[in-house]
# Entry
Amino acid sequence: MPESTLSSSSPDMNCSSVSYVHSINEAGRLLPSASRWNSIEIDYNPFPKSSIEYDSLPSPYSKSVEFNLVITDKTHLKRFVYISIFLVLAILALVLLLPFLAPKHSHHGSSKNLTLAINQALTFFEAQKSGHFPKNSSVSFRGDSGLQDGNSSSHDLVGGFYDSGNNIKFSFPTAYTITLLSWTVIEYHQKYADIGELEHVKDIIKWGSDYLLKLFVPPINATSSSTNNNLYSQVGSTTNDGFNDVTCWQRPEDMSYSRPVSICNSTASDLAGEIVAALSAASLVFGEDKAYSGELIKGAEKLFELATAVDPSAQGTYTMSDACGGQARQFYNSSGFEDELVWAGTWLFFATGNTTYLGSVTQKRTSAETEEIPSEKWIFDWNNKITANAVLLTRLRFFHDMGYPYAAALQPSTTRTDLLMCSYLSEHIFKKTPGGLILLRPDDGKPLQFAATASFLSKLYSDYLDLLQRQGGSCSSHNYTLEMLRHFSMSQVDYILGDNPMKMSYVVGFGESYPVHVHHRSSSIPWDGHQYSCEDGDKWLYSEQPNPNTLLGAMVGGPDQHDKFLDDRKKPWFTEPSISSNAGLVAALIALHNPPCESSDFSCVGSGIDKMGIFTNIR
# Structure
């Protein structure tokens, strides 16, 4: 093996970066001389030469080990060294910058016009308003209605929303609707503002929260029994003699039949809890209006105090009592109340910053999950809040961890949320229709309402992970990515908006094909200046003609398990919309709406979400 010849004045090794090696002739043979004069000088040190001499330092290695190279041209070696160093530095820089340069916000969005869909979905709530109808409303086939509501109980119950295609005002789903819409504004208010819908959605929320304030009559004095407080659960009837809100097909402006009121007390724990949650969430939406926000919080705290002061053995659901929710059972039968009390405590904590409420959540979380019936597991709707509450508590843990002693409630909630995400993505937990719609409650019909809230929660949680600069999560032995969550979320909304085997948008007015025989009284009866009686209404109910008034933005019940849909006004399980369902649709749409910014704009991290706004009142 040829050895290198070092330039040195002594037997010791010279550690200079300049070395000399044997030269090779054109035939490829080594020249025999060991002299530096028959060698080529190689300077392979890319850094400035040191002024310190190291000639006296002995080498621990043999020279053949240190210089086992034959180099004919120092120019090529220098170039190689420089390029190598550049590549190492470039790779190092890329590794460090990769989390920031990942195209988090250039997601494959829907080809649908989500801005238009949001505007239309919000417009549906305009068509559901009861009371003194706004003169500036974009809905032209509605007017004043229900102006005598509450007279039978000597209490003003004018206002609120008609629940669906009938003319009943149910308090339970109304409160859920306001809670959910408020949540979307708290998280995505900038998105709403960017598309010009912030004031629109806030007006809808206030219309609802104003009505909710009327539903609770607090005790006159501190000594009054909590079981004697009035809590109004319903306006309208399904059972009174003669015509009622179910048997009469009539516009609300023309109603002439009696509209009795259903009254509860504080033992209706679920109804009280949902109203508390709605008032608390709305108080955050209107935080800049200190007077109104304070009024909402005051009402929420008083109602929560009374609801939780009830003897646990007396607590229950509002539909357990005939006087309170007997008529609501066939429409909104509640399966439990612990989840609403936990939901209420969570929102009260966000609204006030009072850790007493978070302590209540910690204590009741386990019992609420125990109360959950199997068919409700992983569902977020007017009846079940456990799933959504887990997402909220996970948000608290991620961005404002309260530590001990609340960690007991926060960590399990994160675990449950991860399991929720995996359940959406799993092919074994929930089935899908052949067209891809998730079937969270396959035996109950009207599947779109559940798919919409699943779309919302999956996209919302992916935004939380995005803020943490995580690429995904895991549950048990399964992993998921942000892209998987967003693809699932978008797939459900795309299905609702027309990417389905029926090639039909299930949102009225959106796209080229949508339901035109919607099960809805106001939409199906002409707005022509004539008053139509209950007997007249049957003509419109059974008409095969399309509804004369387009119920813009209404999401109908949806198809069956095989993607089949019948556009039939007489089949409400296909064609009836509701305010609670549309709240889920709005939530999914605004979550998926891409913010108007480039992927390189770091202010867009989290896809337009307000990271800390929900914690404004927490110190």
